[in-house]
């Protein structure tokens, strides 16, 4: 190893030196840490940076990735659809504890300078605290023990997240909360010049007007004379007057939106010292308009500002961290992430709303919020379409070895006092990787959108998500670049096996099957999906179907197959695997999930067989080392 | 029980206020420092703490325990309800235990010191975390956190970093047995393989040319080395000695010359191993754990094939022993539980059914499917368990003393043990001569100990023990007279009425006897003041879910009584906003209702549309079933937040069963309550249990006011329920004022 490295250095001193220099001591960079206490100010800052940036990189730290080995997205097995269903399950199950946002600009290299990133990374600590006492944002969440352990090893501070994490509500949850909160909203409504008022409207307006007039005069007079307490309270009783803060107010009951409009119109036409507030009725529309009397124009301004602040505060309290997501969305800037499927299923489920049932719906829903999403992983494929780097550091070191693309990083943040507790550097890696890739692929910030649209990978939005990678939390040595050994295989040619003796390896299973039936004389390959279940790929069409027929008929015509079945061996098609994912039969062992799927809906499955949709996956015999599972 | 967190939230507020107000008052009655910290145990000091604890437990008269978990209920409707039968209640506890993790475990041995006429307590606070210490199946891959519970722990400064970074791991007995079994299997496999025919390397198919070159080179190296050994009679292999970390280094291993291999990749090592076995009869490839547990790879020279086999066996035995030790070490915190179990000490807990279930599932094995099996397994491991909450609620003397005050742990502690709770506050309180308790942590001792503002499992265990000691004295147990050493406290006649009785559900006073497995409904004083709710008859109950969201209990009642007559509905109980129980006055109505529902379903002819019941079926998602289906839904491992979603997720399977059950009379449904005695009444909406904290009451009364008929409505009781919340609220504020 050392020798290898030396050799490389000798061959290319310059590159090696550079590499050394570029050996980013990531923790050197200061990432601004944001928790409850400094959220408001940081949000304003970040909004500015977002406004001035070309791209926004995001990454997050979760409480887990997958609940059992087969439930992670398996590159050799999953179609985009099943990968989505698995990611959906994880996003619903686990919690985001940190969300890192990094708006950045790219200065392309000139003859005198390197490509330069100017980045503003912010690491938000999150906790789904129930701030409104409504059982939101989440009643409970799961933690993957090994995940937490490895986070702890990297020095993650759980106390900061749990004590001071920022809460949030998704967009859907916010509308539910608003319905339930019944907070008066200040009605700085634009008064619509709607249809001509009817007689009834005129009568209503006139009646309200005189009531308001009378009440207002009474209030103003009251201030002059000193009345007895009894009379004062009687007056209040009769007039229906209340107090809003220190100011007098009254409520006008309304029946519909139309009447609200009329009241508002009347108030703005005839009174300049009254401010209306609309009181909602349990989510069923307005219940009343509360009119607040101000003592002067100055006082009126004051109250208006107060109300605005109140609303802002209310919103901040309700939306919490989601304001950041809204700001990113509003900017319409391209969002960069590594492993987008994972990242964006979490974003959707936590900050937008419940995840839809299918990948397509998910894409549609997401596109409305984030029109430009770029998966760095996918860009990586553009350079070496058949090369794979299965985590961020590996991808970085791969690029380092293959290309000479110097990139400088600048972070204008001031150094914070909590140095050493710097988290969220993955977002910088992502931005850095993106910068390298973009200079290789000639993406510039001047025309990011059109260039991105020209990339073959981005032609269809759906392609952006590279479903074939998962960012594993397990330590993977940095040099783990795998040469490709991938082969396309149609899902129709796959057969799942389970029910064999525990602890069997793929090789043993292969030996067990070989010779039991004619189909096994053809070339086939076996991989373990988890310790309970294996998948077999035929390289010739129709063999899988034949095999499944034999298995279904309990081994008619083959005593050896019958023998295997009687010992418990079971088989299923890819369609049933899809069913398992669709129905959410997420058992610990895939074998149990298959058994459940077969027990639950045998009819469905035969029906599914008839309208089989086949798709292709990339079978890779090298990629998964089962010892690691 | 199910709202333990909330209880603690409340009780801890009480004590928190208390300590914060007393922190500046210097203790006058004792010269010793009373503010030393509790004994916190993490993996760093676990071994030494365990040794100390062993001694303390062995000497102890009883040991109190308390647990902190990451949550209690995985969905709102899984909270303990009044309509829970024993089996359903157990299923709910089982679900909770299987999903949540234990993060803190308090153990506090108490020993009577006759010379000082005082108890000596040794509180321990263990941080535990289900870390995976072994390469194969460990404790839990995943656990659930209830957001409110975590928030609650945070509120009391629970140190999550200590827990996750340094928490003690554990294996249950079953997991340990499995791990050892696996080891032995692997060991035997290797033995049989070692007979010469080594397993062919997996993929012998694709041999790369680079590999061939490497193999050749290694082969040459090894034969050179062997030859040099033979020539020089074991002298140094000089070649690479100039390098700082040579790839090959000659060392001695088990009295034999060996080459230590450095800096090879795992693939290269695999090739080396192949080379040695293929080409050298006298060389053995050995993996071993050297000093400071770093793995070493060696190629060892042996005199003969026999010698090689002997060496290999030795190595394997070493590795096997080492692995066994590792497994034993991975059992971690379970050693504490084993200690409690093997010493057969009296174990004391406060409302501890859930705690015991956690202990069972984390440290023994998966929970059995029925409560009877569970209880008998527990009894086998813990011969004597006493629950202080049950003791306080069932003994008349203590009840009088408590004056129907809350039996939550901290208020009971404040009430029964003022001499400990308010030790430093002194004069203001007229001191009742109580049982003295001296606390010892390491070398520090105090008779008026207060751990400070921290209220963790260890402190709660300490409070539980104090409450128990005081309660014993009220029962008339004289520690001075009693020769505890001879028979043990557990056999004291005055405790026999309470021993091994636990509240399976505190809400409805359901008690289980661990020894006889008898289930009874207690006659706790606090449940006797008013007969408010009708008796619950499970065969008369129908479960309805998925009805329109605007449907309120009153609507539901109207709708059903229009069909079955004004007296047909005994009570209505909402599980959550999507589901409700309807208890009919007659069993027949259940099947009638289900049948009628089935016939009306999906029909749109005028008669069906105008049928009074069709209002309930609006939206087409309304489902109905018997109580047995409720049990089945509870037993599922799925936990959706809303009951209707849960039923749908589980329902795929039991669609047919709904119909099945409708046809026959519901079978095997027995009302467990003894129908004769007056104590059979189950009080619904029992808000005066201590399982409701102030917030909760606020929220509930708020809910009730907003939507007067949200949960339980049976006619006039509506106002009663409101009354209960309000009066409780008052009482609650009073209690806190008192404290």
TrEMBL record, chain A:
MF-aspect GO terms: 3'-5'-RNA exonuclease activity; RNA binding
Cofactor(s) it depends on: a divalent metal cation
Pfam family, one: CAF1
InterPro entries assigned to the protein according to its UniProt record, in alphabetical order: CAF1_poly(A)_ribonucleases, RNase_CAF1, RNaseH-like_sf, RNaseH_sf
Gene3D superfamilies xrefs: Ribonuclease H-like superfamily/Ribonuclease H (3.30.420.10)
Similarity comment: family membership: Belongs to the CAF1 family.
Protein name, per record: Ribonuclease CAF1
Organism: Macleaya cordata
From TrEMBL, chain B:
Similarity remark: Belongs to the CAF1 family.
Biased composition (Polar residues): 674-692
Region (Disordered): 666-698
Obligatory cofactor(s): a divalent metal cation
Protein name: Ribonuclease CAF1
Superkingdom of this protein's organism: Eukaryota
One Gene Ontology term of the molecular function aspect: 3'-5'-RNA exonuclease activity
InterPro entries xref list: CAF1_poly(A)_ribonucleases (IPR051181), RNase_CAF1 (IPR006941), RNaseH-like_sf (IPR012337), RNaseH_sf (IPR036397)
Organism whose genome encodes this protein: Macleaya cordata (Five-seeded plume-poppy)
């Amino acid at each position: 190893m050392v020798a290898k490295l030396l050799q490389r250095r000798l061959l290319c001193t310059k590159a090696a030196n550079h590499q050394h220099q570029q050996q980013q001591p990531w923790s050197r960079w200061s990432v601004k840490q944001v928790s409850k206490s400094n959220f408001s100010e940081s949000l304003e800052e970040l909004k500015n940076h977002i406004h001035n940036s070309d791209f926004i990189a995001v990454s997050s730290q979760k409480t887990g990735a997958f609940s059992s080995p087969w439930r992670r997205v398996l590159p050799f097995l999953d179609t985009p659809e099943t990968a989505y269903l698995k990611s959906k399950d994880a996003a619903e199950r686990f919690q985001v504890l940190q969300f890192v946002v990094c708006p950045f600009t790219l200065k392309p290299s000139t003859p005198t300078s390197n490509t330069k990133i100017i980045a503003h990374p912010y690491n938000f600590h999150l906790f789904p605290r129930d701030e409104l006492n409504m059982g939101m944002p989440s009643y409970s969440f799961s933690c993957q023990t090994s995940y937490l352990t490895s986070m702890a090893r990297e020095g993650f501070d759980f106390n900061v997240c749990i004590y001071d994490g920022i809460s949030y509500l998704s967009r859907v949850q916010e509308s539910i909360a608003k319905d339930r909160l019944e907070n008066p909203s200040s009605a700085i409504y634009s008064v619509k010049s709607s249809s001509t008022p009817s007689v009834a409207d005129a009568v209503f307006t006139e009646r309200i007007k005189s009531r308001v007039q009378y009440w207002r005069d009474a209030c103003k007079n009251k201030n002059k004379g000193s009345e007895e307490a009894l009379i004062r309270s009687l007056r209040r009783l009769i007039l229906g007057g209340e107090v809003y803060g220190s100011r007098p107010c009254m409520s006008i009951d309304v029946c519909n939106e139309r009447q609200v409009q009329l009241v508002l119109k009347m108030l703005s036409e005839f009174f300049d010292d009254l401010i209306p507030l609309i009181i909602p009725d349990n989510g069923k529309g307005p219940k009343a308009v509360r009119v607040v009397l101000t003592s002067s124009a100055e006082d009126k301004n004051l109250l208006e500002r107060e109300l605005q602040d109140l609303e802002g505060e209310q919103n901040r309290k309700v939306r919490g961290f989601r304001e950041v997501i809204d700001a990113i969305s509003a900017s319409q800037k391209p969002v960069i992430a590594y492993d987008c499927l994972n990242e964006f299923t979490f974003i959707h489920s936590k900050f937008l709303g419940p995840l839809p049932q299918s990948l397509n719906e998910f894409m549609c829903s997401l596109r409305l919020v984030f029109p430009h999403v770029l998966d760095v992983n996918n860009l990586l494929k553009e350079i070496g379409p058949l090369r794979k780097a299965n985590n961020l550091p590996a991808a970085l070191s791969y690029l380092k070895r293959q290309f000479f693309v110097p990139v400088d990083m600048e972070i204008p943040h001031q150094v914070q006092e909590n140095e050493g507790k710097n988290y969220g550097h993955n977002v910088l890696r992502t931005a850095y990787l993106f910068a390298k890739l973009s200079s290789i692929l000639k993406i510039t910030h001047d025309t990011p959108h059109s260039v991105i649209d020209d990339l073959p990978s981005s032609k269809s939005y759906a392609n952006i998500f590279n479903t074939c990678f998962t960012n594993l939390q397990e330590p993977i040595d940095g040099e783990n670049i795998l040469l490709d050994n991938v082969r396309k295989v149609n899902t129709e040619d796959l057969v799942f096996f389970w029910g064999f003796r525990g602890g069997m390896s793929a090789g043993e299973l292969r030996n067990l099957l070989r010779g039991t039936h004619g189909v096994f004389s053809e070339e086939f390959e076996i991989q373990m999906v988890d310790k309970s279940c294996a998948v077999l790929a035929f390289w010739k069409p129709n063999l899988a179907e034949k095999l499944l027929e034999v298995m279904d008929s309990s081994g008619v015509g083959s005593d050896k197959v019958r023998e295997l079945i009687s010992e418990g061996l079971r088989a299923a098609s890819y369609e049933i695997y899809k069913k398992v994912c669709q129905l959410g039969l997420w058992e610990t062992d895939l074998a149990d999930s298959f058994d459940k799927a077969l027990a639950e809906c045998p009819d469905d499955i035969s029906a599914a067989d008839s309208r089989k949709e086949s798709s292709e996956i990339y079978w890779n015999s090298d990629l998964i080392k089962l010892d690691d599972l | 029980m199910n709202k333990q967190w909330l209880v603690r939230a409340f009780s801890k507020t009480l004590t928190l206020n208390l300590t914060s107000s007393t922190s500046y008052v210097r203790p006058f009655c004792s010269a010793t420092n009373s503010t030393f910290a509790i004994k916190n145990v993490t993996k760093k000091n676990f071994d030494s703490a365990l040794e100390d604890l062993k001694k303390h437990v062995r000497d102890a008269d009883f040991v109190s325990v308390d647990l902190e978990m990451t949550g209690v209920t995985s969905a709102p409707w899984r909270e303990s309800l009044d309509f829970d039968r024993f089996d359903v209640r157990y299923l709910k506890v089982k679900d909770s235990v299987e999903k949540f993790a234990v993060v803190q475990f308090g153990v506090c041995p108490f020993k009577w010191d006759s010379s000082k006429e005082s108890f000596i307590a040794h509180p321990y606070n263990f941080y535990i975390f289900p870390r995976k210490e072994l390469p194969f199946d460990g404790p839990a891959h995943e656990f659930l956190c209830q957001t409110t519970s975590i928030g609650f722990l945070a509120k009391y400064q629970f140190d999550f970093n200590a827990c996750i970074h340094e928490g003690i791991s554990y294996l249950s007995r079953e997991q340990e047995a499995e791990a050892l079994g696996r080891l032995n299997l692997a060991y035997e496999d290797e033995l049989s393989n070692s007979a010469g025919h080594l397993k062919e390397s997996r993929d012998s198919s694709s041999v790369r040319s680079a590999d061939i070159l490497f193999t050749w080179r290694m082969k040459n190296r090894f034969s050179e080395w062997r030859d040099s050994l033979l020539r020089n009679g074991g002298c140094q292999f000089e070649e690479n000695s100039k390098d700082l970390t040579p790839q090959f280094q000659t060392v001695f291993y088990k009295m034999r010359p060996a080459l230590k291999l450095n800096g090879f990749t795992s693939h290269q090592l695999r090739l080396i191993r192949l080379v040695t076995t293929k080409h050298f009869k006298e060389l053995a490839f050995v993996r071993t754990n050297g000093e400071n547990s770093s793995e070493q790879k060696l190629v060892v020279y042996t005199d003969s094939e026999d010698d090689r086999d002997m060496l290999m066996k030795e190595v394997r035995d070493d590795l096997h022993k080492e692995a066994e030790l590792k497994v034993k070490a991975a059992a971690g915190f379970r050693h504490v539980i084993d200690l409690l179990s093997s010493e057969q000490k009296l174990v004391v807990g406060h409302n501890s059914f859930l705690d015991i279930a956690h202990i069972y599932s984390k440290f023994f094995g998966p929970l059995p499917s029925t409560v009877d099996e569970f209880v008998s397994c527990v009894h086998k491991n813990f011969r004597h368990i006493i629950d202080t909450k049950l003791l306080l609620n069932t003994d008349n003397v203590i009840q009088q003393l408590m004056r129907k005050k809350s039996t939550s742990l901290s208020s009971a502690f404040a009430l029964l043990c003022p001499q400990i709770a308010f030790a430093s506050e002194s004069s203001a309180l007229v001191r009742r001569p109580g049982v003295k308790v001296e606390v010892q942590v390491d070398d520090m001792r105090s008779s008026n100990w207060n751990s400070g503002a921290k209220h963790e499992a260890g402190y709660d265990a300490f409070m539980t023990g104090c409450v128990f000691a005081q309660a014993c004295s009220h029962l008339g147990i004289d520690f001075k007279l009693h020769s505890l050493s001879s028979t043990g406290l557990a056999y004291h006649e005055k405790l026999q009425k309470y021993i091994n009785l636990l509240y399976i559900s505190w809400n409805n006073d359901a008690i289980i006897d661990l020894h006889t497995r008898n289930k009874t409904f207690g006659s706790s004083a606090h449940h006797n003041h008013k007969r408010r709710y009708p008796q619950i008859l499970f065969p008369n109950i129908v479960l309805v879910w998925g009805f329109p969201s605007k449907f309120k209990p009153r609507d539901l009642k109207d709708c059903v009584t229009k069909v079955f007559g004004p007296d047909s509905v005994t009570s209505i109980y909402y599980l959550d906003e999507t589901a409700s129980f309807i208890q009919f006055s007659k069993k027949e109505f259940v099947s009638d209702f289900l049948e009628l529902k089935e016939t009306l379903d999906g029909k749109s002819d005028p008669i069906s549309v105008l049928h009074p019941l069709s209002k309930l079926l609006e939206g087409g998602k309304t489902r109905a079933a018997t109580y047995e289906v409720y049990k089945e839904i509870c037993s599922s491992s799925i936990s959706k937040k809303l009951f209707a979603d849960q039923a749908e997720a589980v329902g795929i399977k039991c669609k047919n069963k709904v119909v099945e059950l409708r046809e026959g009379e519901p079978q095997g449904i027995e009302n467990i309550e003894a129908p004769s005695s007056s104590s059979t009444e189950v009080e619904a909406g029992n808000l005066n249990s201590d399982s409701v904290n102030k917030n909760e009451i606020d929220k509930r009364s708020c809910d009730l006011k907003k939507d007067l008929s949200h949960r339980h409505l049976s006619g006039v009781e509506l106002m009663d329920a409101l009354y209960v919340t309000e009066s409780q609220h008052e009482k609650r504020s009073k209690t806190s004022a008192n404290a």
